[in-house]
Amino acid sequence: MSQTRWDVVVIGGGPTGEVAAGECARRGLSVALVESALLGGACSYYACMPSKALLRPVQLLAELRRLPGLRDSAPPVPEAREVFRFRDEAASNYDDSGQKKWARKAGVTVLRGRGRIVGEREVEVVPGQGAPVRHRAVKAVIVATGSRPNVPDIEGLRAADPWTNREGTAASEVPEHLAVIGGGPVGCELSQAWSGLGARVTLLVRGDGLAPSMEPFVNELLLKTFAKQGPDVRLNTEVSRVEKQNGRLSLTLTRGDPLQVDAVLVATGRSPATQHLGLESIGLPGTGPVEVDAQLRAKGVDGDWLYAVGDVNGRAPLTHMGKYQARVAAAVIAGEDTRLAKDAPTPQVLFTEPQVGSVGLTKQQAEEAGLRIRVADVPFSAAAGSSVLGEGIEGQARLIISEDEEVLVGATFAGPLAGELLHAATIAITGRVPLSTLWHAVPSFPTVSELWLRLLEADRDRART
Length: 465
Prior knowledge:
The chain is α/β, with parallel strands linked by helices and about 475 residues long. The protein is about 30% helix and about 25% strand. Strands 1, 2, 3, 4, 5, 6 and 16 form a 7-stranded mixed beta sheet that branches. The longest helix has 18 residues, at about 50-65. It is globular. The mean pLDDT is about 95.
């Protein structure tokens, strides 16, 4: 008889669920990991990894075009077939056998099928074939089902078989004309990736700017870059109707003439994947995020047995934050006295060209929170290390400083490979490192990290004026 009783049952085998399962198993708990699709989840196969592989050639070509002696030899577009091969390798060729080996080595039992909560500590697993099997979790059930893309209620859109991040990262033919709906991270990244591969791309943005949750200079830089290289950005423009016409799609817009395209990619956010999870059986709403406390326990559930980590709880829908939550939840389940750090900053990288890295509060967010702050700004080219990246380096770096505590509360870097500067800011904000201490953190010369010194100098000089 197969085992149906476990210390922990994890529903969802994406990166967050894998970390939760692995961390529980590492502490000696018996763990079942329930997944109906590929182990590794959307991030590994249809989001984070393949999208960055598609964007890397765009970034590298931009680097070549900034360098004398190389810019004239840079091709106009990458060889699409080779880029797709590289993308497939980054996505493990859509084969999760490596993840299966990891699970066996980690002591995690994988249960193939759809997991559904049917009662307190009870999870029913419905396999592709055969009868459902009930599994008992002695200590905890961890929900790590992630999120699903939102498809707006636009007339004719669903019938047009729109791309989401799945098709937007996995397609192997370059469309002649692609429309992208949404100006957030996914819309910006994938529109630039496909434009870089030679597609004519029109990015349709409902608001008046790109990446609206970031500093305003990010929008200005991206709009300037996109105007030079593509895609074509149309702000304050919505799609009101989609029709199939002679093998193509006709998009009726709220501004301008209808748009004729070969495909439309929807990048209008994501929602927690809680549908069909059976949460109603334990008195929770069947849709929307699973609300949790600082130890990732689901609110409104007696007995401290249900946990929710990652996108599904709606706290910080980013893979790295989900993994962090998974580590905390596993430690709590194992009896350790820990919890999410209070006001822990959420780092985010926009993998466009140029890159954008942001952590903590923006200037507007800090002001809305009632903080007394000052801002230090320098151009990305201020560091000597930036100059050797090539000619015409553009971008900006900003620190948000609490005047009451003399610590950082936010940082944004926008420029070539800016994401690599971000972790230092995350450490400084998380550790509440005083500015007086940061002066003693000496950056190597000549590296781009000297921007830190330039920012501290800008703050010092501002105080003198």
